[in-house]
Amino acid sequence: MLSIKNLHANVEDQNILKGLNLEVGPGEVHAIMGPNGAGKSTLGYVLSGRDGYEATAGNIDFSGTNLLDLEVEERAQAGLFLAFQYPVEIPGVSNMEFMKESVNVIRKARGEEPLSAAEFLKKAKAAAKQVNLPLDFLKRGVNEGFSGGEKKRNEIMQMILLEPKLCILDESDSGLDVDALQVVANGVNSQRDGKRSFIIITHYQRLLDYIKPDFVHILADGKVAKSGGPELAKEVEKTGYAWLEKAGEKAE
Amino acid sequence: MSEQIDQAIARKYEAGFISDIESDTLPPGLSEDVIRHISAMKEEPEWMLEWRLRAFELWKKMPEPDWAHIGYDLIDYQSISYYSAPKSMKDKPQSLAEVDPELLRTYEKLGIPLHEQEMLAGVAVDAVFDSVSVVTTFRAKLEEAGVIFCPISEAIKKYPELVKKYLGTVVPRADNFFAALNSAVFTDGSFVYIPKGVRSPMELSTYFRINELNTGQFERTLIIAEEGSYVSYLEGCTAPQRDENQLHAAVVELVALDDAEIKYSTVQNWYPGDENGKGGIYNFVTKRGICEKNAKISWTQVETGSAVTWKYPSCILKGDNSVGEFYSVALTRGMQQADTGTKMIHLGKNTKSTIISKGISAGRSSNAYRGLVRMGPNADGARNFTECDSLLIGDQCGAHTFPYIESSNPSAIVEHEATTSKVSDDQLFLCKQRGMDAEKAVSLIVNGFCKEVFKELPMEFAVEAGKLLEISLEGSVG
Question: Could you give the ipTM of this predicted complex?
Answer without folding.
Answer: 0.94
